[in-house]
Design goal:
mainly alpha; Cytochrome C Oxidase, Chain A; 16 helices; binds protoporphyrin IX containing FE
Length: 416
């Protein structure tokens, strides 16, 4: 079964601009903002959104379709590549327009960007639904249910983001920021991640799926959905107690779902950049949930909730989101590029380069948001973290080069 999520049947290995370039674009933009943060208005917000709304949202569109295709084996003409590319550019344009619109305070631009984003994600959900309806019965259909549920949170979260950009009073910023950020972080990103890791995690570890995985994922889905629904309604209704309860419920669902990840770890513990990054990302995810619950519980007002929320957002964006993306792509890119076992190994070898230093760099940088350290130490560690993440781009490029070289070497039985 794990083979199901590692294979990309159509047109393995070729370049695809709408799939490949936006990731580079978002990561480069994030790097530029880090370097030029003094001249970028609301640079903290911009950075968080370059990662979560730009890079991760694009990755969700690309990879949920990839896994849907691998699991359902649907006909390519159900959703031609031209449509997929149009959606990917639409989501990239929407995110870019929002990222410009919020700090420049051009509300009409924010509305336009949100409309483009919602249109792209709705189209994506319709395409997933068509594949699902056309597919024969099989295992792990639950993953598709997670993807469809994830997409449903985008119109909700985007509307709340648009209202936030309207700059309501401080009390409402607190309420809206919780509902907006958690509906998108736990709904859009979180449900896609949980739905995918059920099968991707054992595949990455090259081990067997826990027999309970599908059942646990099915049982956890309603818990997640209930928790996220309450996390939208409770802050809007002004109930901090209910918001905290919903976060605890989500955490309980995550622990229940996460039981299926333990058996593969016992069989083969994480030891590569990809698996170590994903493990640490999941740890940070739990930390984010605990931090958010503690922060909301301790704040006396919603205005106080809004203050200090940026720390949680930074940990979520870099510790969880970015780290998860780097980990998953470190595994997926060599496998999806394909070319036969020897070529995949050659690319993986490159992708592993300076792995431990890169992981340490990113995680130390994330810690600086949580542990008070003198200014020079904080600046040094964050710079180290930025370099560690930025290295991902040239390392991936060197992976492509390694692939080309390995492909040129004659090898019997190689596929391309
Ligand atoms: C239509 C798309 C979006 C719009 C218009 C939008 C807008 C906003 C606005 C206006 C804020 C409040 C800034 C402030 O504190 O004054 C905010 C905060 C936040 N948003 Fe978004 N956002 C969008 C998409 C996303 C996505 C997709 C995610 C995550 C997956 C996300 C996560 C967050 C987080 C974590 C915060 C808190 C950040 C902080 O306080 O620094 N947003 N967003």
């Amino acid at each position: 079964m794990p083979e199901a999520v590692s294979g990309s049947r159509p047109r393995r290995g070729d370049r695809w601009a709408a799939r490949d370039y936006p990731t580079l674009l978002w990561l480069t933009a994030a790097l530029v903002v880090v370097i030029a943060h003094r001249v970028v208005p609301q640079h903290g917000w911009v950075l968080v959104h370059l990662v979560l709304l730009g890079a991760l949202t694009h990755a969700v569109l690309v990879w949920s379709l990839h896994f849907a295709q691998a699991l359902l084996r649907s006909r390519p003409d159900l959703d031609p590549r031209a449509h997929q590319s149009a959606r990917l550019w639409l989501v990239t344009a929407g995110a870019a327009v929002v990222v410009v619109g919020v700090p420049t305070r051009l509300w009409w631009l924010v509305v336009t960007g949100a409309v483009l984003l919602v249109a792209a994600v709705t189209w994506h959900a319709i395409a997933l639904g068509r594949r699902w309806r056309a597919a024969l019965p099989g295992r792990f259909r639950v993953t598709l249910r997670y993807y469809l549920a994830a997409a449903a949170w985008v119109p909700v979260g985007a509307t709340l983001g648009v209202l936030l950009a309207r700059r309501p009073g401080e009390e409402w910023v607190g309420r809206l920021v919780v509902a907006h950020s958690l509906s998108l972080l736990l709904g859009w990103i979180g449900l896609t991640v949980t739905g995918t890791l059920v099968t991707l995690w054992p595949t990455m570890l090259r081990t067997r799926i826990d027999d309970r995985a599908e059942r646990l994922a099915e049982q956890a889905l309603p818990v997640f959905l209930l928790a996220i629904t309450v996390l939208v309604i409770a802050p809007l209704a002004g109930s901090r107690a209910l918001s905290v309860t919903a976060l605890v419920l989500y955490l309980a669902g995550l622990v229940w779902w996460g039981r299926a990840l333990i058996v593969p770890v016992h069989q083969r513990p994480p030891g590569e950049v990809s698996t170590m990054s994903v493990s640490l990302a999941l740890v940070w995810w739990v930390v984010v949930l605990v931090l958010a619950a503690a922060h909301i519980a301790h704040a006396r007002t919603w205005t106080a909730v809004a203050h200090g929320y940026g720390t949680i957002a930074a940990v979520a964006a870099f510790g969880f989101g970015l780290q998860l993306m780097v980990g998953a792509l470190s595994y997926l890119i060599p496998v999806v590029l394909g070319g036969g076992p020897s070529v995949v190994r050659a690319v993986q070898h490159r992708v592993e380069r300076w792995g431990v230093a890169r992981i340490v760099g990113l995680n130390l940088a994330v810690l600086t948001w949580l542990i008070p350290v003198p200014d020079p130490v904080r600046i040094a560690l964050r710079t180290f973290g930025v370099v560690a993440v930025a290295l991902f781009v040239p390392i991936m490029v060197s992976g492509f080069v390694a692939r080309v070289r390995a492909m040129r070497r004659p090898h019997p039985g190689r596929s391309s």
